[in-house]
Predict the 3D structure of the following.
Amino acid sequence: TYAFDFGDGTTVPAQASPTATHTYTAAGSYLVTLTVRNVSGLSDTAATTIAVSDPPPIQAPAAS
């Protein structure tokens, strides 16, 4: 199984799929972890820090 922790209080409990998506609501640095567990109960965890930035401002088109 695969369990995700997105570092902002959002987790995905153990699931069969090795993929997950998440949308952050605030810019910042987040420690994202993935824990993999096999049928024997052995597990391993990998983590990485990601940087989330604010989206660029939307500019109105210029009149021509």
Observations:
- The longest strand covers residues 28-37.
- The chain has a mean pLDDT of 95.
- DSSP finds no helices and four strands in the chain.
